[in-house]
Every structure is written in C-alpha cells, then in structure tokens.
Amino acid sequence: MPSPAAMNLIEPIGVVSALTGAVVGAVLCWPIHPLLGAVGAVAGVLGGLMAMSVLLLVFMLVFTAVTEGPRAAMKLCRGFFSRPPPAP
To answer: Most buried residue, 3, 42, 43, 75, by most Cβ within 10 Å?
Structure first.
C-alpha cells in the first residue's frame, strides 16, 4: 500500500473539496431541520467534487494560457472537447 506522501495532487484537492462541500451543505441546511443537515452534507460532498473538477479545469486553462500562450490553451481545449477519431 502506498504511503500518504505518494498521493497525487488531484487526490488531496478532491478530499478537501468534498469535505468543504459537506461542511457548507450541512451548515446551510441545519437551521431548517437537523435531518436536512445530513442530506445537505451528502449533497455538499457531490457538489464539492463536481465544482472541484470544473474549477480545476478552468485553473489549468488559465495557467496554460499565461505560461505557454493562448494558442496552446486553445489547442488543449480543442483536444479536450473534440470527438475521438473514428476507429479503423
């Protein structure tokens, strides 16, 4: 089993975003009803993970545009959103 120091960068970001989403969801839903606070925590985990993936994609596109230029960022964006070539 790998050590925690060998984790990729994406895994800690995913864990932090899931925990943040759970806390925010629970805190916002708790005043309505305590049971709804648990539902808000579960929804916050899913929302945090989805928001993390979108924010990470936007961050990487901006970082690529700043460091390598806008053409390289658009090339990556075209490669990410284009359809795969047909199989021979």
So the answer is: 43
Torsion over CA: 57, 63, 68, 73 (sign): positive
Pull the structure tokens for residue 88: 């021979």
Closest Cα partner for 52 from 1, 3, 9?
A: 9
Q: Which tokens in the block code for residue 37? A: 């606070």
- Note the pTM of the prediction, 2 decimals: 0.60
Q: Which of 72, 73, 17 is nearest to 46 (CA)?
A: 17
SS3 percent helix, strand, coil of the chain, rounded to 5, is 80, 0, 20
Type of residue numbered 11:
E
